[in-house]
């Protein structure tokens, strides 16, 4: 029976668009290769994805007694979280939001599955 291991991180600081840029390159890799590849990516969002990948690895070891060699990153879902509005103090005129900056948050869900034939 195929087991699915899930790890989640909610309300993570960073825009979903920037997280998806890194997440797309890590899907369908083995778990160990995905962690190594994420460490090589020079983006701030890669560090957060490494944390969630390691959380998924811990879930697999402790809750399901699975070895990391047999795991594949089946999907990485990046959802939009709430946006905080922050006022920029410089003059911006009446148009284009009047200096309102949106601080974006993301929800990350990583699913692992066992390799086929194991």
TrEMBL record:
Question: Does rRNA-binding appear among the keywords?
Answer: yes
Q: Name one GO molecular function term.
A: structural constituent of ribosome
Biological process (GO) annotations?
A: translation
Matching InterPro entries = Ribosomal_uL22 (IPR001063), Ribosomal_uL22_bac/org-type (IPR047867), Ribosomal_uL22_sf (IPR036394)
Question: What keywords does the record list, in alphabetical order?
Answer: Ribonucleoprotein, Ribosomal protein, RNA-binding, rRNA-binding
Q: Which GO terms describe its cellular component?
A: large ribosomal subunit
Describe its assembly.
Answer: Part of the 50S ribosomal subunit.
Role played: This protein binds specifically to 23S rRNA; its binding is stimulated by other ribosomal proteins, e.g., L4, L17, and L20. It is important during the early stages of 50S assembly. It makes multiple contacts with different domains of the 23S rRNA in the assembled 50S subunit and ribosome.
Family listed: Belongs to the universal ribosomal protein uL22 family.
Write the protein's name.
50S ribosomal protein L22
Which species? Candidatus Amesbacteria bacterium GW2011_GWA2_42_12
